[in-house]
């Protein structure tokens, strides 16, 4: 039942990892599972699928994607960012959440295949495969990680300042001077802190 799904995983390394995990979990010989996998045709999505086609990437990965790729490659990096406020503002935190939950529970770091299986949606496999390739293409992953964290902090700070400017403007228009003073103080603290 599982082999047709495994067969459609495009990344050979991830497919091999799935076979290893499957053989281990079912107490089967890994070579036997590989032999059976070669006989199976990959499952394809039905023609009436409402899943949108994954757009072709024309630019490099975003800072959020790069962060996910680098944490996926070395889950210990999660420890450095787990309390960062920008995590709450990220669009897709599913992969990082899986790694964070494993690290906080003191479990062994999850492999990319385990992350895919825990996220459990049709997009996870191709997404993780792409992120693994991104991480492997980095000449200096540690510097890339530090730069990525700096960019995400700066973006989060900019969003916070923009939000405060809007709140100040609304309070001024409403004639709420006490709110204006409080928001200006908060704005100055954010400016000084960054």
Extended strand count: 0
Gyration radius, rounded: 22 Å
Secondary structural class: mainly alpha
Distance between the termini: 53 Å
How much is the average pLDDT? Answer: 81
Helix content: 55-70%
Write the element-wise H/E pattern from the N-terminal end onward: HHHHHHHHHHH
The main β sheet shows up as: none
Question: Can you walk me through this structure?
Answer:
- The chain is mainly alpha-helical and 194 residues long.
- Helix content is 68%, strand content 0%.
- The protein is built from 11 helices and no strands.
Using brief descriptors, characterize the structure shown.
11 helices; single chain; mainly alpha; 68% helix; 194 residues
Give the topology, please.
Blueprint (H helix, E strand, L loop, with lengths): L2 H5 L4 H15 L3 H10 L23 H11 L4 H4 L4 H4 L4 H11 L7 H8 L4 H13 L4 H33 L3 H17 L1
Helix pairs in contact: 2-3, 4-9, 4-10, 7-8, 8-9, 10-11
């Amino acid at each position: 039942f599982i082999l047709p799904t495994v067969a459609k995983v495009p990344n050979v390394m991830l497919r091999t990892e799935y076979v290893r995990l499957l053989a281990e979990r079912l107490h089967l010989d890994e070579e036997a599972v590989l032999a059976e996998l070669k006989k199976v045709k990959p499952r394809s999505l039905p023609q009436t699928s409402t899943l949108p086609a994954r757009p072709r990437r024309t630019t490099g990965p975003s800072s959020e994607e790069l962060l996910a790729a680098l944490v996926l490659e070395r889950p210990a990096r999660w420890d450095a960012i787990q309390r960062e406020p920008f995590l709450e503002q990220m669009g897709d935190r599913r992969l990082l959440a899986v790694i964070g939950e494993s690290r906080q529970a003191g479990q062994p770091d999850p492999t990319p295949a385990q992350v895919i299986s825990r996220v459990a949606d049709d997009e996870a496999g191709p997404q993780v495969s792409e992120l693994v390739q991104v991480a492997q293409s980095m000449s200096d992953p540690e510097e890339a990680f530090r730069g990525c964290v700096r960019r995400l902090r700066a973006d989060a700070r900019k969003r916070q300042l923009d939000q405060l400017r809007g709140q100040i403007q609304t309070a001024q228009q409403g004639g709420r001077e006490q709110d204006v003073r409080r928001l200006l103080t908060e704005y100055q603290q954010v400016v000084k802190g960054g």
